[in-house]
Write a structure and sequence with these properties.
mainly alpha, 2 domains, two-stranded antiparallel sheet
């Protein structure tokens, strides 16, 4: 029997995406880990400020002001930095197997991350995230107020190896490899709309969870493979989609 909260999201690729929502327990563990890291950084900054305050002149006032500014940057910027640059995962979320995504399942951008973390001040009231915990329990999508305002979800990631992101390879080399392997493919039955769907997936896959990425790739490949003559029968779904997109681009 499963007690996980799961939701289904219709993606731009026309595939229903199943996501497992993070609960209070896993979110609390992630927050504790992140807060421990932040506290360690703040303590280190406090020690540096104390050393600087002992210098000549008005060093104490400058050091105190700089310390307060840096505390704000660490408390607010830590989450925004990691959520924006690390595919929605702070160190605590990564350790707990969680990720922040947009409500449509897409990758998190700077503005939604900034909104959800600014409203953390409200979710914390009157202490120990009381407002946030009530909101998570009352929300149908396990969202605290910051998530509701930003249009974000915190989801669980499944284990297993992460798909290789060949999009990170040099574009020219990837294009040549794909075209050279697919010279005999017949892709005439694949429509321009279907190719656009494949390209949308390839562009946004890096921000998806491992489970969502694999599911979308498999369903798109299953849908389009019967329309293509020539691909190897056991080609990996993402490899097939990459080759299909490259072949259509080369022949257009």
């Amino acid at each position: 029997m499963s007690y996980e909260d799961r939701i289904s999201i219709a993606t731009p690729e026309g595939v229903d995406l199943q996501l497992t929502l993070a609960g209070l327990g896993s979110r609390a563990v992630a927050r504790i880990v992140d807060q421990a890291i932040q506290t360690g950084v703040i303590v280190a900054l406090g020690l540096l400020a104390a050393v600087a305050a002992g210098g000549p002149g008005g060093g104490a006032d400058v050091a105190g002001a700089a310390f307060l500014l840096l505390v704000f940057v660490v408390q607010f910027g830590y989450d925004v930095l990691f959520e924006t640059l690390a595919s929605g995962r702070t160190p605590g979320k990564r350790w707990s197997g969680l990720r922040v995504v947009r409500a449509d399942g897409g990758p998190l951008a700077f503005v939604p991350s900034a909104v959800r973390n600014l409203l953390r001040l409200v979710d914390f009231l009157p202490g120990v995230y009381a407002v946030g915990m009530v909101a998570v329990l009352a929300s149908g999508r396990n969202q605290r107020l910051g998530d509701m305002a930003a249009g974000t979800l915190v989801v669980r990631e499944r284990g297993g190896p992460r798909p290789v992101d060949r999009a990170a390879a040099p574009a020219a080399a990837a294009w040549w490899d794909a075209v050279s392997d697919t010279a005999a493919w017949d892709v005439s039955a694949v429509t321009a709309e279907e190719v656009a769907t494949v390209r949308r997936f390839l562009e946004r896959r890096a921000g998806l969870t491992v489970e969502a990425r694999a599911r979308l790739a498999a369903e798109l490949a299953q849908r389009l493979r019967p329309k293509v003559v020539g691909p190897p029968p056991h080609q990996a779904p993402e490899d097939f989609l990459e080759a299909l997109a490259a072949t259509k681009a080369a022949r257009s």
